[in-house]
Design a protein that fits this description.
Layout (H helix, E strand, L loop, with lengths): L5 H7 L28 H4 L2 E3 L5 H5 L10 E5 L4 H13 L4 E4 L15 E5 L6 E3 L4 E5 L4 H9 L3 E2 L10 H6 L7 H4 L6 E7 L5 E4 L5 H10 L5 E8 L1 E2 L5 E10 L3 H10 L7 E9 L6 E9 L3 H12 L4 E8 L3 H4 L14 E9 L4 H17 L7 E7 L2 H4 L16 E9 L5 H16 L1 H4 L17 H5 L3 H14 L20
Helix pairs in contact: 9-12, 12-14
């Protein structure tokens, strides 16, 4: 049975919204401490180094697994500060990483050692313009964005976790519950203002730097530090209210839950499902949760939920505003996803089908893993099933995002722990099952595709950015043009030579 503490613990695991260690070369160009005396006067007061009492708070990130390390935090107050800082870091060969929400977890980030964290918290603003576009600063989280545009009677595709930074998620594509209606978050981007490696401030849109604009939407972490982004927004669906059902199941019902998910395919454009398999923290028994959100009338939402309700141990139904969904949805426990500092190792991929025999076998194996290693009890695997009509309505070359037509289900395997003694067994388990679900006979796709924001860090670039040669040529040309020094190589770097794509 499901214990009383299971649901809050399980929702923590739904955050999904890492290359072999020796294969990654550190970007350890300079020791920041030796550069302290040389900070330019205009930004010196915006630098916090690791002896400050504020350093831990300002440098904290969601995952401490294979993480970058920092000797200083730079908190620019203006774009001029940012420009000066970038020019200085590049000139002094100081590695740096930019933080919006701090949820990036790819193992490629560990290339940055003894670097500077650029904390964009002073750029946390969200405003709706007269033409109903929204201008979002790079320090804003999805919760900030949702509140601003939702209270104006508008909506857009956003991630499920309230504390994830808007910019980081959008630059990688930006999946979310409303993608069936409005496409990816990046599909709604109309203009980006950013600072390049040498501090130059540029804008990119359809009419200005259009090639850069194309690359920013899907591979954008490779080209600069975003200052702000302008998004198209849309009138609120169903007056801004959704039907939500939060349901728990015994492990013995998992096969029937998979059948129920499949019975709803293809999904209504306004429907989103998340299926989670995790461990009850008290009993360590495997349990299942489904979160169903429908941006439409309650009676239709109930109809979609009924196949699950018939199987569930518990069901909590509610009508919730889009503004409240990030923080109050799923019983309010989405906020637990924002806890920082655990070791979170994630493996993701996209599948065309949910192979029921494989899912059942994995659940049994997960039970054995947790029973033998209780320190892994916060681990889980989840399947996000979101509608795809809005994404697939756009042509394949619309942006650098490469996976249109390959987004039926997102599989995310999450190994979460605090005791390093279970690190190897947990990671081996996750990698083995990730590789199993990559098999074309299991995934339903001829090629492996991984949404780059869910990438572990050991994937070939063509898995993250697409296998088309024209994509490789275009992205490599952009990388060489806009980041010739490779200072933005810490997160899923684009190859600078065509032969390095495979």
């Amino acid at each position: 049975m499901v214990s009383s503490t299971f649901v809050p613990s399980l929702i923590m695991l739904s955050s999904a919204a890492l290359a072999v260690a020796s294969a990654i070369k550190p970007l350890r160009f300079a020791n920041v401490k030796r550069q302290e005396a040389g900070w330019p006067d205009v930004i010196a007061s915006s630098v916090i180094n690791d002896t400050s009492s504020e350093f831990g708070l300002k440098s904290a990130r969601w995952s401490s697994y294979e993480a970058p390390t920092f000797d200083a935090v730079f908190i620019p107050e203006t774009e001029e500060d940012l420009s000066v800082g970038l020019e200085y870091f590049t000139r002094q060969n100081i590695p740096f990483l930019t933080k919006s929400g701090g949820h990036g977890y790819s193992t490629t980030l560990r290339q940055v050692q003894d670097g500077v964290l650029i904390n964009m918290e002073k750029f946390n603003y969200s405003r709706v313009n007269d033409d109903f576009t929204a201008t979002i600063g790079s320090g804003a989280t999805f919760n900030d964005m949702v509140y601003a545009i939702g209270t104006a009677g508008r909506e857009a595709t956003v991630g499920s976790c309230p504390c994830v930074g808007v910019m980081g998620a959008t630059l990688g594509g930006g999946v979310g519950r409303l993608q069936g209606l409005h496409g990816l978050a990046s599909d709604a981007v109309r203009k980006v203002r950013l600072a390049l490696w040498n501090g130059t401030i540029v804008e990119a849109c359809d009419d200005v730097n259009p090639d850069l604009f194309w690359g920013l939407r899907g591979a954008g972490q490779n080209f600069g530090v975003v200052i702000e982004t302008t998004f198209e927004t849309y009138p609120a669906t169903n007056d801004g209210f959704s039907y939500e059902a939060q349901m728990t199941f015994n492990a013995s019902s998992l096969g029937s839950v998979v059948d129920a998910v499949n019975s709803l395919l293809p999904l209504d454009p306004a429907l989103a499902l998340v299926t989670i398999v995790a461990a009850d923290p008290e009993t360590l028994e495997t349990v299942v949760l489904v979160n169903l959100v429908y941006a439409g009338p309650e009676d239709q939402g109930k109809e979609f939920a009924q196949p699950f309700v018939d199987l569930s141990v518990t069901t909590v139904e509610s009508i919730i505003s889009w503004v409240d969904l990030p923080t109050k949805g799923a019983g309010g426990f989405n906020n637990v996803q924002c806890i920082k500092g655990r070791r979170n190792s994630l493996y993701g991929l996209t599948n065309k089908v949910i192979d029921k025999p494989s899912v059942l076998e994995m659940a049994d194996d997960f039970s054995s893993l947790v029973q033998a290693n209780p320190a892994l009890s916060a681990s889980a695997f989840l399947i996000e099933t979101f509608a795809v009509q809005g994404i697939d309505a756009l042509p394949d070359d619309y942006s650098a995002f490469p996976h249109r037509g390959h987004l039926d289900h997102f599989f995310e395997i999450i190994v979460s722990y605090e005791d390093d003694s279970v690190a190897e067994v947990g990671d081996d388990w996750a990698m083995r099952w990730r590789d199993h679900f990559r098999n074309p006979n299991i995934s339903g796709y001829d090629t492996v595709a991984v949404y780059q924001n869910y990438g572990h860090g050991d994937e070939a670039p063509s898995i993250l950015y697409g296998s088309d040669e024209w994509r490789h040529e275009r992205l490599t040309a952009l990388k060489n043009s806009y980041d010739p020094q490779g200072v933005f190589n810490a997160y899923h770097p684009i190859p600078t030579a065509i032969e390095d794509w495979s």
